[in-house]
Amino acid sequence: MKLNKISTLAPKKFAKEKTKKELQKLKFELEELQNLLFAEGKHSILIIIQGMDASGKDGAVKNVFEAVNPMGCRVTPFKEPSELEKKHDFLWRVHPHVPEKGMIQIFNRSHYEAVLVERIHELSPEKMISQRYAQINDFERLLKQTETHVLKFYMHVSKEEQLKRLNERLSDPSKMWKHDDNDIKERDLWKDYMHAYEDVFEKCSEIEWHIVPSDQNWFKEYYIAKKVVELLRSLDMKYPGLKK
Question: What dihedral do alpha carbons 31, 36, 41, 43 form, nearest 10°?
């Protein structure tokens, strides 16, 4: 899979206003299905969101899941590992955050940072990085076998749109708190990141990756909401009856 061959824009058949109306319907359905998931308590959902800086990860979390019951949904961001976390294997900090039955858990970045950032900046030996792909597959296979359903999204944003959003953080007071000088420096490594992501998609796709065109937020949010709702529908859940 070559990311530069995949459009970052919504397919032409999607009209903006019609799609936004469909998104609202999906969000209402997501609210109902999440309540059912929580009540039945037989399945759990792990949603992994990856992407470059300013690709829209935070916005996707906020806008797609704004209507769900906070009791049944948690978000964990994975930033640079702490000194304690660095003293353990790379999955040590991740496993405590996988969802219990009845819960939706969202990872804003994830264990994949260990084969992306650490690879590109040579923070771990090459041999260790190469071993991690199989370890990630084993980890996700374990989740799948224990009724945790995993959805993996890559926010596919263009370099031009990313720069526009990063510049907004310099001029929009409501976004200035997101500004980080390092985000601009990381742009110089764009091609390296694209190659690293392509390797991830090739080596860690036992559970499908969804490449989300993310230059237009309305389509990005619609795409994610649709995939989450489709998964929840497929679980054939039922409300529990009265306890005997």
Answer: -70
Distance CA 99, CA 72 (A): 10
Nearest Cα neighbor of 94 from 48, 32, 160 is 48
pLDDT tens digits along 144-200: 999 999 999 999 999 999 999 999 898 888 888 888 888 888 899 999 999 999 999
Residue 143 identity: L
Sheet holding 73-77, edge to edge: 73-77, 104-108, 44-51, 148-156, 209-213
Asked, for residue 153, whether it belongs to a domain, the answer is: yes
User: What range does the domain containing 205 cover?
Assistant: 3-233
Q: How many CB atoms lie within 10 A of CB 76?
A: 16
Whichever domain contains 213, its CATH number is 3.40.50.300
Distance CA 54, CA 162 (A): 6
Dihedrals phi, psi of 153, to nearest 5 degrees: -120, 135
Q: Is the dihedral of CA 104, 3, 157, 95 positive or negative?
A: positive
Asked if residues 26 and 91 have their Cβ atoms less than 8 Å apart, the reply is no
Q: What are phi and psi of 70, to 5 degrees?
A: -60, -25
> Helix or strand or coil: residue 41?
coil
Give per-residue pLDDT as tens, 105-136: 999 999 999 999 999 999 999 999 999 999 99
Nearest to 234 by CA among 6, 45, 7, 99: 45
- Structural domains in the chain (count): 1
Q: How far apart are CA 171 and CA 153, in angstroms?
A: 29
